[in-house]
Each structure stands twice: as C-alpha cells, then as structure tokens.
Amino acid sequence: MPELPEVESLAVFLRERAVGRAFVRADITAISALKTYDPPVSALVGLLIDDVQRHGKFLDFSAQGVHLIIHLARAGWLRWRDEQSTTLVRPGKGPIALRTAFDDGSGFDLTEAGTQKKLAVYVVRDPAEVPGIARLGPEPFSLSIEDFSAILKKAGRVQMKGVLRNQSVIAGIGNAYSDEILHVAKMSPFKPASNLTDDELTTLYGAMRETLQDAVDRSAGLAVQDLKSEKKSGLRVHGRTGQKCPVCGDIVREVSFADSSLQYCATCQTGGKPLADRRLSKFLK
C-alpha cells in the first residue's frame, strides 16, 4: 500500500504535470471504486486543475471548487501517460478502475490488482466530505515531541504498532513504515504506547521523523512507475521475512494477522525473544 512518502511523491509528480490542465475525460470503469454520486464524475470535464495535494494517504485533485480524491488502498496504483489512450475501457474488464485525460493529451489510469477491490474514488466539493479525510489525525512532521508524547499517553495500553498505523491518530503511516520505524527505534511492535521512558520517547520520535524523511527524500523526483520498487528496496525489515536483519544479521521474523502481517528483528527489538504468532496463539493479548 502506498504510504505518506509515496503519496507525497505522487502529489509532487502530478502537481508538476496536471496543474493548469483541464479534464476532458473522467471515465469510471469499476463501479465499486466510486464512493460518491453528487457531484457526478462527469462534473470534472472541462474544469482546470488548481492543485494536487495529499491528505494522509489520500490524493486530492482540486479543480475549480470540485475535488477528485483518490485512495489507492492496498493494491491500487496510478499509471501516468504523457499520451493517454483514446480507447474506451469496458466496465468490469481488466484492472483499470478510472481513466482520465487532460487537454494536452496526457492523463492517468487508476488500476487495482487482485480480488479485494478497496481502491476508492470520491468526487466532492469539500475534502472533509470524505469520511477517511475527516477523521485523519495530525501529520507526522507537524507533531512536536510534546504532541507525540500526548498522543501515546492518550493511547494507553494500545500496542505501538497499532498506534503508529492508526490514521485517526497519526496520518500517513501504514503497515510498512510502522515496521520500519519500530525497527529503527529498536522497539517491540507490541510495546504499550503509554509505557515509554523519556529516552524511548525521544528515540521513537526521532525514528519516525528520520524514517519517513529518508523515504520522502529517496522518492523525490522519481517517475511514478519507479516508486514501488524504490520503496521496496529501501525497507529494512518489512516484507523481508526470513532474510537477514541489515543491522545485526539475525533472521527477520513475522507475526501474521487475519489480513496483514508485521515483520521485526528479535535481536534488535525484543531482546532476542521471538513474538508469538497470532495464528498459533489465541491467548496472546
């Protein structure tokens, strides 16, 4: 799933190419992706794009008072074309969920792989009309260490992994970067959020900012098609189960859940003690 660094890079990429262009096409080809009906998607046609912004993991095309907002979810992606195809895409056929074209001939397709269709498209007059945006927490880079401390204290006994990836608590961090932040901080993903010493708080706050800034810097200026591979190549533990930890050489381990998993290094993060896999222990709280 694209997270803050990738979506920020997408926003910059699209801002450079789409602002000042007018929509000439906006065709929904996967009805399940469209989450709103007023204004209709057709209302975008003829409107000039004023800006492209990011809200957490949402992309926002602002066009003369109308907003096209996109959430790529787990398997969605945006494919930019300097010369957009003029072919009409048949609804329900293939991976394309939305095809747009601009007045200079460029445009993009939204695609979604797999069978779990979670990609979301909204056409609204105010971004706050999108429920996921309305409930977003603050952006990581906007938080002072005092703000961060207050968030963790309020979370109480909730595990750190869950706090970091909860969009209503902190916007933009997902499954991958929460793993990466906790590895850099040398902290267990199951550590209670309110149970941090002052030193641990300082370390975690620094790890969050450092990890995200490094990913933003690495993504800057990349073409859209290169963002996924750049993200994957920069990850230390996430998605690397069974490989060696780049810090200590121990094996990266995994804990699986119903629809996701986390990766961590026991030597770096849990004092050498492997965490119980929830597939195997129904008693782990």
What does this structure look like?
The structure is a single chain. The strands form three sheets. Strands 1-6-7-5 form a four-stranded antiparallel beta sheet, with no helix packed on it. It has a four-stranded antiparallel beta sheet with strand order 2-3-4-8, covered by helices on one side. Strands 9-10 form a two-stranded antiparallel ribbon. Helix 5 packs across helix 6. It has helices spanning 4-18, 131-134, 145-155, 160-165, 175-184, 198-219, 227-234, 266-269; strands at residues 23-28, 51-55, 58-63, 66-71, 76-81, 96-102, 107-112, 120-124, 252-256, 261-265. The model is unreliable at 280-285 (pLDDT under 50). The chain is built from eight helices and ten strands. A hairpin with a 2-residue loop joins strand 3 (58-63) and strand 4. Keywords: DNA damage, DNA repair, DNA-binding, Glycosidase, Hydrolase, Lyase, Metal-binding, Multifunctional enzyme, Zinc, Zinc-finger.
